[in-house]
Recover the amino acids of this structure.
């Protein structure tokens, strides 16, 4: 099963500049996708997840255009061919 992951500019140093990568997760969940992404781009998971293993507060992750904070979080199912987008939150005033 292949899943594409869109990488924001700030994290592309982990993917050698690639804006999108394909991963083949062993587990068909967002957690499995992040594990596969970490294997491909070591260090990137620590930028997406905090020390407790939860999604960082200012990082939004979408699976097929659904915000995982409103679905099952890291347990959100990811279908073959789905697109996962990692989007840093923008704040300011």
């Amino acid at each position: 099963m292949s899943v594409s992951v869109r990488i924001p500019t700030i994290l592309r140093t982990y993917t050698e500049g690639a804006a999108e990568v394909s991963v083949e997760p062993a587990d068909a969940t967002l957690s499995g996708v992040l594990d596969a992404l970490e294997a491909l781009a070591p260090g990137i998971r620590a930028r997406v997840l905090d020390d407790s293993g939860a999604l960082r507060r200012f990082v939004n992750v979408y699976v097929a255009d659904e915000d995982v904070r409103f679905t099952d979080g890291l347990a959100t199912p990811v279908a073959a061919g789905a697109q996962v987008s990692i989007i840093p939150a923008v704040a300011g005033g």
DSSP finds two helices and five strands in the chain. The longest helix spans residues 30-40. Residues 64 and 73 are 13 Å apart (CA to CA).
